[in-house]
Amino acid sequence: MTGHNAKHGAEQGAETAAVAARYARRAGLPADRYSLLRPEVWQMVQERQRAMLRLLVRAGLTDLPSLRVLEVGCGAGGNLLELLRLGFAPAHLSGAELLPERLAQARAVLPAAVALHGGDASTLDIAPDSQHIVLQSTVFSSLLDDAFQQRLADAMWHWVAPGGGVLWYDFTVDNPRNPDVRGMPLARVQRLFPQARITHRRVTLAPPIARAVCPLHPGLYPVFNALPLLRTHVLAWLEKTP
Length: 242
Known about the structure:
Elements: H1 3-25, H2 39-59, E1 69-72, H3 78-86, E2 93-97, H4 100-109, E3 115-118, E4 131-137, H5 146-159, E5 160-171, H6 186-192, E6 197-205, H7 207-213, H8 220-225, E7 231-239
Parallel strand pairs: 1-2, 1-4, 2-3, 4-5
Antiparallel strand pairs: 5-7, 6-7
């Protein structure tokens, strides 16, 4: 290995280790923080699902069972299960996950036909132009190294087939109480994917507000979410034009 490649490998390994450490620090969060039994959570999920389906229809990707989808940072498999319920075919779904324990959780709940890959997603041997959709959901906001972000973005773009795209969901603003994450404004997304044609919409009521108002009454979620300034996430379709 040359000196340049050794340095590159060391930097990449340092960031993946840092990501694992950041996720480990989240173990202290309440066990039900993301439970669908919580009114703010199911409303966030349903809002995102509706917006995602509208983006896919607008992109002309309506034959869901035929679409090949790879999720980067699939975690315990929740988003892939969601896609299965929406009509995507197990044999056309795959996921990549850095953390072995989360990958094992995904394997335990997903059909065997769903392919799962462990390790650093940016180094996966995925055929170029092979995926109609490459999905990431709140992964990039946990990557604090710009160069690592760009390597992963380049890999994702390499896998996308012309006419397909990256389906992006992440928050846009910094959380001053959590140094392990950073906001991903749309301008940063555009720099990561300079060749993409981007369609986006702001979604998701700011979680601290949602957690405060929804226990009072679930109907307060759409009331507060009607104010665009209170929506903290972007759902975007980054199209690779033929």
